[in-house]
Amino acid sequence: MHIAEGFLPITDCVVWYALSAPFVVHGARQVIKQSKEDPESRLLLAAAGAFTFVLSSIKLPSVTGSSSHPTGTGLGAVLFRPPVMAFLSTIVLIFQALLLAHGGITTLGANVFSMGIAGPWVGYTCWRLSSRLGWNQNVGVFSALAFADLSTYVVTSVQLGIAFPDPVSGLLGSVAKFMSIFAISQIPLAIAEGILGVLVFRLLTDVARPELERLGVIKTAEHAKTGA
Amino acid sequence: MRRSTAVTIGLLVALVVIFAISFVVGGMHTNPVTRFGGTDSAATSQIQATDPNYKPWFTPFFQPKSAEIESGLFALQAAIGGAVLGFAVGGYWGRRRAEKAFHEDSMTPPVGDAPEGAL
C-alpha cells in the first residue's frame, strides 16, 4: 500500500495531505488525552502502535506469487477507536519513508489516508457491527483486523486509479488493474492478520482485562461469566 | 484452560497453513524472476505502463544502498516493534501475576482444595 516517493502528481499529494491532516491532528490529541486520563492504558497504547510497527515491516508471500505486508491497524482501532490509529500509522509511515525509502514524504498524505484512516475506520465498523449483531467477540476481532488490512489496499488502488486513469479503459479500468495487483494478493494476508489478531486479543484479555474493561472493549458482565 | 490452549494451537496451525498454501500456490505458474516481488513495486511498474511519460518528481532523501541493507532496516523496524510489544505485554503479565500471588496469600484456600481434616 505504500505509494512510492514522487509517484503521485502534485495535486493528488496536496489533496490527500489536506484530507488526512485533520484526522492525524485529532488522533494526536486523542493519544495525549488517553494517556493522561488513563495512565495505566499507556502500555496498551504502546502495544497497539508496536503491533502496527511489526506487521507493516513484514512482507509475506501470497497466492498470487507476489509478496505484501499486513497493516496491523485494526487492533488499535478496536482498542482505542480509529482516530488514535491515524496518528500511530503516521509515525510508522514517516519512519518507513525516511529510513527505508518505502513510501515517501510526498505520498505520505495518501498513504496515511489508506492505512491510518480508511483501514482503521472500516475495521472499527466491522467490530461494532459484529457486536451489534451479537456475534462472538473473536469473530469481531477477526473481521476488524482482516477488513482494516484489505480495505487499506483497496483504497490505495482507488488512489492510484484516480491519479493514473487508463488511456483506454479510464478510471475504473485503472482501478481494476491496481486492485488486481493489490487486493487479490492481500486476501490471504488479511485472513492471516485476522487470525493473528484473535491470538493477540486473547492474550490481551488475559493480561490486561481491567484496561480493556475501562476502554469499554469488553463488557464487565462477561468477567463474572468467563472468570468463574 | 485446556480448551483455550487447543484453540490457540489451532489458530497457530491455521496461520502456518495459510502461508504454506500461499507459498506453494504462489510458486506455481509464476515467473521465477519476479516471483514474490513486492506489490508496491508492481504498482510502480503499473504506473509506468499506464503513463510512460510520468516522471517521479521527487526522490527519497535516503535510499538503502543494497537489498541486504534494506532488509536489515526492515528487520530493525520489526525488532523495535517486537521489543515494545513484548515490554507492554510483559508489564501487564507481571502485574497480573503479582495480583494473583497477593490474592493467594491473603485468602484462605477454597474449600474444595483444602486437604481433608483441615476443616
Account of the 3D structure:
The complex is a heterodimer of chains A (228) and B (119). Chain A is mainly α and 228 residues long. Chain A has a single domain (10-223), classed as Arp2/3 complex 21 kDa subunit ARPC3 (Orthogonal Bundle). Helix content of chain A is 75%, strand content 2%. Chain A contains nine helices and two strands, in the order ααββααααααα. A two-stranded antiparallel ribbon of chain A has the order 1-2. In chain A, α3 (73-80) runs antiparallel to α4 (82-99). The radius of gyration of chain A is 18 Å and the shape is globular. The termini of chain A are far apart. Residues 222-228 of chain A have low confidence and may be disordered. With 119 residues, chain B is mainly alpha-helical. Chain B has two domains: 1-57; 66-111. Chain B has three helices and one strand, in the order αβαα. In chain B, 13% of the residues are buried. The chains are: A mainly alpha (228), B mainly alpha (119). Chains A and B meet through α2, β1, β2, α4 and α6 of A and α1, β1, α2 and α3 of B.
List the defining traits of the structure above.
heterodimer; A: 228 residues; mainly alpha; Arp2/3 complex 21 kDa subunit ARPC3; two-stranded antiparallel ribbon; 9 helices; 2 strands; 75% helix; 2% strand; globular; B: 119 residues
Radius of gyration of chain A: 18 Å
In total, the number of domains of chain B comes to: 2
- What's the Cα radius of gyration of chain B? 27 Å
End-to-end C-alpha gap of chain B: 29 Å
Give helix and strand order of chain A, one letter per element, not per position.
Answer: HHEEHHHHHHH
Give the spatial strand order of the biggest sheet of chain A.
Answer: 1-2
State the order of secondary-structure elements of chain B, H for helix, E for strand. Answer: HEHH
Number of strands of chain B: 1
Largest interface: chains, residues each: A-B, 72 and 64 residues
The residue-averaged pLDDT of chain A reads 93
What is the count of structural domains of chain A? 1
- CATH architecture tag of chain A: Orthogonal Bundle
